[in-house]
Amino acid sequence: MTGLLAGLDLGTSSAKLVVLDPDGTLVAEAEQAYPTHTAAGGVVEQRPEDWWDATVSVLQRSGVAARIGALGLTGQMQDLVPVAARRATRRAILYSDTRAGSQHQRLRVAVPDWEYRTGNHQDVTNVAAKVAWLAEHEPQALTRAQHLLLGPGAFVAHRAGAEAACDVTTASTTGLLDVGERDWLNDAVAAAGALADQLPRLTGQVAGDAVVGHVGADAARETGLAVGTPLVLAMGDAVSTTAGLIGTDPGEAYLYLGTTGWVAAITPARDCAPSPIHSLVMPGWEERLRIGAVQSAGSAAAWALRTFLPGTSFAEAEERVAPRLPAVADRPLCLPGLAGERTPVRDGDLRAAFVGAQETTGPEDLYLAVLTGVAMGLRHAAVEMGATQARLPLVGGASGSAVWRQVLADVFGATVVVAAAASAPGAVHAAREAAEATGLVHALRPVFETGVQETTPPSPTHELLREQLDVHRRLYDALKPTFDDLAEHRHLSTRGGPAA
């Protein structure tokens, strides 16, 4: 088989397409945004037809759709997409939708060993609870559905002509996968009100099973792809992005800093109790991608900039705070979770806090405290997952901050590296999976194997910050009663009751 390689990443806000030669040269790329619909009560939805329309748009605009030899698809995970006759029966309920709180609580009672069997903590965003909500509030949408798809990559592939499928990575985010049995968790499926035959086929079980179908005649007319083009369901976006950045070898890890932040590491599969560290199954079941996320990273830094250095641009702030980097003694400890926390504790009631401010503490120190607090939260997660490498790749919008890179290097005691180019790594890896699943020879490599732009080693400040890590970790537990009390006051206040 010959032809170009294409990868499509259907994220939360847009579809990103990359088309490459087998040697890795970029031939074409395109992006198309689509809207998200939100409403009171935690409703977060998207129209699956918008995903399809975006796919058609980027393929047509690439100008080379007819030359594509295989298309790999990845995207956001943990969605609920009920489908009949290759069309959605309603809007997709997204991973961040929180409406199913009462259904979630009932499932916890109905399946007592739920978290142990799924290998993860389950919160109100899990797909099983979404299915239960649908069964209770929109039963016709559920009963009409031939299949329950779990992400936009699977939907677009199915719409184009593929079978109903779900990669094991996405499945492991849903609360519906029994990681011990390597199959759907029938107890949770039944308790949620679905039928076992509505769940899609799992891919990623064995090598070569990711080809889920081929482009049909109708889809070919719309997209410009050739009839019969193989459709490959790549790993969900978290693993595809990781593989596109650092590969899939156990022991590798990287940091992401955007609005939120996380440290992700590939580890051998092993039995472990559910924890704030999320564990995603990788193809073949022999490895896991473990992710420790902090709720507020770039968002906390933006808040600190507005609050402590008002009227200051990002570039001006960098110049202003850099001389204060060695002044660790004047920098208070900070918990940066402005809206709850996910790692090292999972607590929706936690809020940001500063401990240890003194007379010599200035606004620059408070700003740096927030950056340091985010870095320490990520470091706690890395310790729990056993990620202790000396070279730490960094991606995300905040990777452009030289100050934050230095803080991370000092907190982790590792050299932080930034790639020269890290555009759409998830889509690039989806293209690589498409090549490997269909036997196409290729030379695609992870981003951090092909070049590094910036290198930031630890400074002498590393030793001072290392001594503070244990103290910082204890703050989460020490302040929990205070956060719980404040949450109760907020709850009473919003209900108009007494806050006494």
UniProtKB/TrEMBL annotation:
Which residues belong to any copy of the Carbohydrate kinase FGGY C-terminal domain? 254-428
Q: Does the keyword Transcription apply?
A: no
Q: Which residues form the Carbohydrate kinase FGGY N-terminal domain?
A: 6-243
Keywords (A to Z) from UniProt: Carbohydrate metabolism, Kinase, Transferase, Xylose metabolism
* Gene Ontology MF term list: kinase activity
What GO biological process terms does the UniProt entry carry, in alphabetical order?
A: D-xylose metabolic process
Which Pfam family, giving just one, matches this sequence? FGGY_N
Q: Which family does it belong to?
A: Belongs to the FGGY kinase family.
Q: What is this protein called?
A: Sugar kinase
Tell me the lineage of the source organism: Bacteria, Bacillati, Actinomycetota, Actinomycetes, Propionibacteriales
